[in-house]
Amino acid sequence: MRLQVSGRSNIAALIGLFANAAMVWALSSEGSAIYSHQTWRTEDGLPQNSVHSILETSDGYLWFATEGGLARFDGLKFAVFDSENTPELRSNNIRALLETKDNSFWIATADGVSRLKNGSFRAFTTRDGLPDNDVLSLQQNGSGDVEATTSDGIAVFRNERFIRREADSETLLSGLSRVNRQVQLKDREGRLWVGTSDGLFLSQKGQIQTIALRPFLRSARVTALSEDRSGVIWIGTEAGAARFVNGTLYPIASPEPLSQGLILSFFEDRDGDMWVGTDLNGVTVLRDQRFRSVGRFEGIPEGLIRCVFADATGTLWAGTNGNGLRRFDGKKFSSVTTSNGLSSDVILSIGSDTRNDLLVGTPDGLNIIHQGHVRWLTSADGLPDDLIRSIYKDADGSIWLGTRRGLAHYNEGRVTNYTTADGLASDLVGAVLRGQNGCLWVGTLKGLTCLRNNKVDRALVFSVLAQDPITALFQDSEGILWIGTEANGLACVRGASAFQFSSSLGLPRTISGVVEDAQRQLWLTSPHGLYRVDKAALNAYARGQHTDVSVVSYGTADGLPVNDFGGGGHPTVWRDEQNTLWFPSARGIVSINTHNADPIQVTPRVSIEGVIADDRHLDPSRMVKLAPGLARLSFEYTGFNFAAPHQIQFRYRLDGFDKSWVEAGRRRTAYYTNLTPGNYRFRLAARNEDGRWSSEAATLSFELQPRFYQTRLFSLVTFMIVAGIAYALYLWRVNRVRTQFYAVIAERNRIAREIHDTLAQGLVGISVQLQLIKRLIPSSKQSAEEVLDSTQELVQNSLNEARRAIWNLRFDSGVEEDLPSRLSKAIRQAVQNRPLKVKLEVSGIYRRLPSRIEDEVIRIGQEAVTNVVRHANATRLDIRLIFGATKAEMNISDDGQGFASQDRVKGADQHFGLRGMRERAAGINGKLSLTSSIGRGTQICLELPLK
Q1: Cα separation, 22 vs 29, whole angstroms
Q2: Dist. CA 307–CA 358, nearest whole Å
Q3: Chain-centre distance of CA 359, in angstroms?
């Protein structure tokens, strides 16, 4: 082995100078504090830069009283109330603010008092009992009454009026001019603090003590006093501010708006941040500084810091990207460079060995610093490569070195190398770590390798990490190995299985360092900022449990000097014995005491600020019913986290429309279109990135009224109309079926009548003729032939009548005939060859009837004549057709034997022929009557109405 020594005396002197330097992040005294700050002025939305009073109301808003109006602040934007948009504010010069126990908000102005209650403003003036409209301050006394101090006295508010009362003389301090008194404060211990134009005075147990403000502050004129939750008294003057802690005054030297300007007001919000109102510089918030940056002022040059490391003595070392090694004594950094013997000013890794020698990895080999001497260990001494990317001290005191060309094991002067030939996933080695299971975990360019007993354990090869460049390794107290990768984010190894976390959780894809703080939170460094995530939530997620994983990201908006924490060396994060975390960045070193970074346990309050319905702005407090026909509806809302408003995430749900919560992220407006009429409730919840969802959601209930055709009454009426129409259609269908049924029955009856009156009658006549022929053949052949000819004609006529009846044809003799002619022909056929004298008589003015009616009249007459021929034994038959002005009659009478009694008439009525006559008469709206008596024949009368 070849040793190189350089700059021994310089290194020895440097080591000796800082050998006893303690690594502490201490303040100059117990009362000092480091604050981050943020200021808002008129260019940021404040109506005017003189802020006389500050108040946080129960709904979560911060209110600022200025000389240009009242400003409401949600952390991102201002809403301004002044005499122009709020007439109840009679003056824009706002003096004081007060919220009472009933959530009424009181505003003191230069022209009266205003009250905001249940969404409405009201003004009170001398007409309401104020001694004077010039109101200086407001307070709520022990009885809960509001007291207003005016330029002409004090008044108490009772029964919606102010009543003058005398000032309490006991509150005045003897020996102090009331003219010089500016402000006074009674603290929690009962002590009275009085600020005057000449200084600050403390009254306790009857003694007055003067608090010296000079030379700490440039002015002794006290303009504001306040006590915070820890009992510290904040003092504002016309030239800066200070804190009085345990009997000692500590000036607030920064920021500039407070160190130079006139302080008008203090207010501590629920998160413990102090808001300070000034005369000309707006409002400034002071917060305990979460991160502290160490840079050029402390001796760190501009540029990338690759790695940090604290040795056994607590000394912090930082490796730069070209400016050598830096050592921190708590206040300043000093440098160790090539001029002091280092092989290179580019520092890639830092570590130590069992003798507490400092080990420094560079692109030109390993530097070992022992008692001021520097030795170089390079490839000439057996290392696989000179570029030392990582250094790890094993439990046995040996050293593992990660290089570009393999892993080196340095133990008692001997070097043993491991490469891909020995089973490593890649020769490019980064992070190295000894696990609790005995594995030496080696992070390479192509995944993770386990060395057990100096041999590769091929059973522990994880496919999910096979091609991932491993950049960081950390094992927690539970034995879980946390792995940072270059492109696939965070992974972990539990036992013999590996799990890769999705970047959709909000984790960075590139992770250069992993460490756990005292609160069991994992911190991740990346080129895109610092991240903090709850380890328990990650473990639950890896086990497959459905849980929210809260990831908090920190960047320049949180006070960091830069977002780039890529590092590129080892280690890229360090936790010291005071639980302070140190992070190298592209612009120096950043540290944080993790006790100041506890997860925010208080969920942010939320408020529904406004509703827009079809481009019309509505007041949520008065929105109960919305007019019908609404097309677009949007809800504007906000949440309150003044320290990090950009971290608030929202979700909302419109009961009656949404089936589940809608995750809105950081969006502060919810949109809905084409809502149907009904009752709705809008619910809103929020959370910080590392907090729980709001336990109580903000709600807004309203009713969207329907148009007249969307009402229940309209629906009922419409249903009844539709049901009525359906029932009418049903009845129409039933009647139609019934009519068709009756038509079929009527047609059957008609056919039966036609058969009876035509074919049956013809067959009867033919039968009679055949009987006659039979009797005539023996005696007179000529007569028989004549009857036979007549029978043949009768057969032909019967066939014609049958066809007409079956096909509903009109009786047709071959020429167009009138009713009397057709009736005469039908009668002749019925009485053919009968010894019956027939007389047909027509009277009145004949007019043609519809053919269907004439057919029915002929059939009725034919049936009546046939009955006479068959049953009456008559010798004479008279038929009369009478045509009148309104009716027509057909009378048929005979001189036959008639009917014996009314019973026989009824019996005769049951005969098919007579029943058919009645049905035919009814079918043509006619009236058929029959009279008969024994020995006097029968009369049939058919009456027909004429139109």
Answers
A1: 17
A2: 14
A3: 56
Helix spans in 6-119 (H): 8-18
DSSP 247: T
Q: Give pLDDT, residue 15.
A: 34
pLDDT digits (tens, 9 = 90+) for 593-634: 776 555 445 678 899 999 999 988 888 877 788 888 888 999
Please report the sign of the dihedral spanned by the C-alpha atoms of residue 846, residue 847, residue 848, residue 849. Answer: negative
Which residues make beta-bridge pairs with 498? Answer: 493
The token duo for 650 is: 């929202």
Please determine, for residue 247, whether its predicted confidence score (pLDDT) is greater than 60. yes
In the structure encoding, which two tokens stand for residue 132, read together?
Answer: 């004077």
| One-letter identity of residue 854 | E
Q: Report phi then psi at 801, rounded to 5.
A: -65, -35
- Left, alpha or beta for 67 (phi > 0: left; psi -120 to 50: alpha)? alpha
**What is the token pair recorded at 303?**
């540029």
Q: Please identify which residue in the block is written with the tokens 């948009």.
A: 85
Q: Count CB-CB contacts under 10 A for residue 143.
A: 8
For 19, the token pair is: 């050998």
Looking at residue 412, what DSSP letter applies?
Answer: T
- Residue pair 67/52 in contact (Cβ under 8 Å)? The answer is yes
**Amino acid occupying residue 342:** L
**Cβ within 8 Å of residue 294, ≥6 positions away:** 300, 328, 333, 588, 589, 590, 591
- Looking up tokens 């055709």, which residue turns up? 709
* Structural contact between residues 319 and 312, judged by C-beta atoms closer than 8 angstroms: no
Confirm if 461 and 439 have CB atoms less than 8 A apart. Answer: no
Residue 232 exposed, middle or buried by CB count within 10 Å (0-12, 13-18, 19+): middle
The tokens for 785 are 């032939």
- Total-model pTM: 0.65
Whether the per-residue pLDDT at 719 is higher than 80: the answer is yes
**Alpha-carbon distances of 97 from 72, 102, 138, 182, 341, rounded to whole Å:** 12, 15, 7, 18, 67
Dihedral angle, C-alpha 500, 502, 508, 513, nearest 10 °: -20
Q: Which among 217-231, 390-404, 700-714 has the top mean pLDDT?
A: 390-404
Q: Is residue 42 within 8 Å of 67, Cβ to Cβ?
A: no
Residues whose CB is less than 8 angstroms from the CB of residue 84 and which lie 6 or more positions away in sequence, other chains included:
none
How would residue 527 be classed by pLDDT, with cut points 50, 70 and 90?
A: very high
Q: Would you say 606 and 639 are in contact if contact means Cβ atoms under 8 Å apart?
A: yes
- What are 660's two structure tokens? 């589940």
- Per the listing, tokens 């038929």 go with 879
Q: How far apart are CA 467 and CA 487, in angstroms?
A: 10
DSSP string, 567-617: --SB-S-EE-TTSEEEEEETTEEEEEEGGGG----SPPPEEEEEEEETTEE
Closest CA to 70 of 56, 53, 359, 205: 53
The Cα–Cα gap between 248 and 48 comes to 34
Query: 């003067």: which residue's tokens?
Result: 210
Say how far apart CA 868 and CA 860 lie, in whole Å: 12
* Mean pLDDT to the nearest integer, 93-122: 94
For 720, residues 6+ apart whose C-beta sits below 8 A from its C-beta are none
Angle at 919 between CA 914 and CA 923, to 5 degrees: 150
Say which DSSP state 869 is in.
Answer: I
Structure tokens at 113: 């008092």
Residue 625, classified by CB atoms within 10 Å of its CB into exposed (0-12), middle (13-18) or buried (19+), is exposed
Backbone angles phi, psi at 262, to 5 degrees: -80, 125
Q: Are 98 and 146 in contact (CB under 8 A)?
A: yes
DSSP alpha helix (H) spans, 638-711: none
The mean pLDDT value for 822-830 works out to 82
3-state secondary structure of 722: helix
Its sign, for the CA torsion 117, 122, 124, 128, is negative
The count of residues in the chain is 947
CB-count exposure of residue 219 (10 Å: 0-12, 13-18, 19+) = middle
Answer whether 585's CB lies under 8 Å from 562's CB.
yes
